[in-house]
Specification:
The chain has helices spanning 2-21, 29-34, 41-52, 55-69, 74-102, 108-115, 119-152, 156-204, 208-216, 238-250, 256-264, 268-293, 315-320, 325-359, 377-407, 413-437, 443-462, 469-489, 496-503. It is mainly α and 507 residues long.
Length: 507
């Protein structure tokens, strides 16, 4: 226990210290939200990866989908690396950096408002982002606190509150730069931790070959006479597995906290290096998490909830509870690192979106035009400082709301994330990605996609989830593309001169 406590205290002190160290660079809006658009490839790549993978993946997804699909759940991690990291950087990285800088866009709702010349789109997008980032944040709290309760014996409620407080401190002090620097430290811990934990868990089962043989001998859930499915290449339910791969891989392309990483990177050469670093990070961390979770059935049945369902969120903690204390301390730091980096990204995204796109809604001129009613530098600096203060207040507000949900979570971690990612990426992915490449996207098409992504997610939830939230989220994301394409064909286009000015950044 002494080792676990000491390592955790050192970790938390370093995180807060980085926040205090970075506070001078967080005095302006660009500094607080984007790190001055001068964050290098290593920090950006690790910020992307650590924001991507949290306790939601390590505890919730790895446990639940490892139980359902066995070793085939490793494909989810491979999809996260190839689709969620490599292709995301290749397809979105350069164009996002160039156009958002050209349009002076600081957030995803800000991009929608300027790219489609609609302040109403900007406002609605900010509300969607704020509302649907909350269940994701609650899922992260639940995942990390479940593991902390296992490792330290501290009541769940105290763990949730403590993690929220420490995350708030370093984000409020240092903004995005502190978050990116801490993400790098946390990423190193995650890389070392996942490799060590996998080796220890496999050793406890007699090695890799023996563990796979044990998995192959397990009978199927629906037919005890058939075995081997949990050690097969595609598992017992390939189509269900595909839905999870789509949700967790393609979803990152439309999430504000993920796409925002491309806003802040220094230049195009940094994007190329960041692509390689981010992909390798995802292969090790995501692939490792799901590979580890695939052996969950070898450690016995998970606890049963009062409603009679298996507690999937307890599977990974039950796998790790028998490890030596030093390794449990490492696991706690691993999940703590993954979760605090994601929490920091989520609260920063939510507060900046509400502040810049709802409370202070500056009307910007298109590139090449002169803004009307310009103000002097002194007033401008005062307004910038006021915006930063409001963002810091909203960070606390967002954390409190998420805490209230996390203290009484309505469902499993995986389902919380499915609801959040489905609505956000279902609404934002298609109009954002197509808006970077296709001049013909119309404001009406963006409205239609917002209604589609949020509508199908909310209706499914109100009806008691007749479609699994994971599969519903995947349908929302993929379905957004035909919605935007069809509506754009039959709705009024933006003026050609305005669109040409926006796309001039690629010439």
């Amino acid at each position: 226990m002494l080792i676990k406590v000491l390592l955790t205290i050192i970790f938390l002190v370093v995180m807060v210290g980085v926040g205090i160290y970075s506070r001078k660079q967080a005095s302006s809006v660009d500094g607080f939200v984007l790190g001055g658009r001068s964050v290098g490839p290593w920090l950006t790549a690790f910020a992307y990866g650590t924001s991507y993978f949290s306790a939601v993946v390590f505890v919730g997804y790895a446990g639940q989908f490892g139980w359902k699909y066995g070793l085939a759940s490793t494909w989810i991690g491979v999809g996260n690396a190839v689709i969620g990291s490599l292709l995301a950087w290749l397809v979105l990285g350069r164009r996002t950096k160039l156009m958002t800088q050209h349009l002076e866009s600081r957030t995803m709702p800000d991009f929608f408002g300027t790219r489609y010349s609609s302040q109403s789109l900007r406002v609605v997008a900010s509300v969607i982002a704020f509302v649907f980032l909350i269940p994701y944040t609650a899922g992260v709290y639940k995942g990390i606190s479940t593991l902390f309760e296992m490792g330290f014996g501290i009541p769940y409620e105290y763990c949730v509150i403590a993690m929220a407080a420490f995350t708030a401190i370093y984000v409020i002090f240092g903004g995005y730069k502190a978050t990116a620097m801490n993400d790098f430290i946390q990423g190193i811990i995650m890389l070392f931790g996942i490799v060590t934990v996998i080796a220890a868990v496999l050793a406890s089962q007699g090695g890799l070959t023996e563990a796979v043989s044990k998995m192959a001998a397990l009978p199927a859930d629906d037919n005890p006479a058939v075995n081997g499915g949990f050690a097969s290449w595609l598992g017992p339910d390939p189509w269900g597995l595909l839905g999870v791969v789509v949700l967790t891989s393609l979803g990152t392309w439309g999430l504000p906290q993920m796409v925002g990483k491309f806003y802040s990177i220094t230049d195009e050469s940094a994007i190329r290096r960041g692509t390689i670093i981010s992909t390798l990070f995802a292969f090790i961390v995501a692939g490792g998490c799901y590979f580890l979770g695939g052996f969950g059935r070898l450690f016995g049945m998970p606890p049963v909830l009062p409603n009679g369902r298996l507690d999937f969120d307890a599977i990974v903690p039950s796998m790790l509870v028998t490890l030596p204390d030093v390794l449990i301390a490492l696991v706690v730091l691993l999940v703590l690192s993954a979760s605090m980096s994601t929490l920091a990204s989520l609260v920063l995204t939510s507060s900046s979106t509400m502040t810049l796109d709802l409370i202070y809604r500056d009307k910007k001129a298109l590139p090449g035009e002169v803004e009307e009613g310009s103000i002097d530098d002194t007033v401008s600096e005062r307004i910038e400082r006021r915006k930063v203060v409001v963002m810091r207040v909203l960070i606390v507000f967002f954390i409190v709301i998420s805490l209230m949900i996390a203290l009484n979570p309505p469902t499993f971690i995986a389902q919380l994330m499915g609801i959040s990612w489905g609505a956000l990426a279902g609404a934002f992915l298609a109009p954002f990605m197509l808006g970077l490449y296709w001049r013909g996207v119309t404001p009406a098409a963006v409205w239609a996609c917002f209604a589609w992504g949020v509508g199908i997610t909310v209706i499914n939830m109100l009806l008691g989830n007749p479609i699994n939230p994971i599969n519903c989220g995947a349908i929302a994301m993929v379905g957004g593309f035909p919605v935007v394409w069809l509506v754009s064909l039959f709705s009024p286009k933006l003026p050609h001169t305005d669109v040409d000015k926006m796309f001039a950044c690629y010439q």
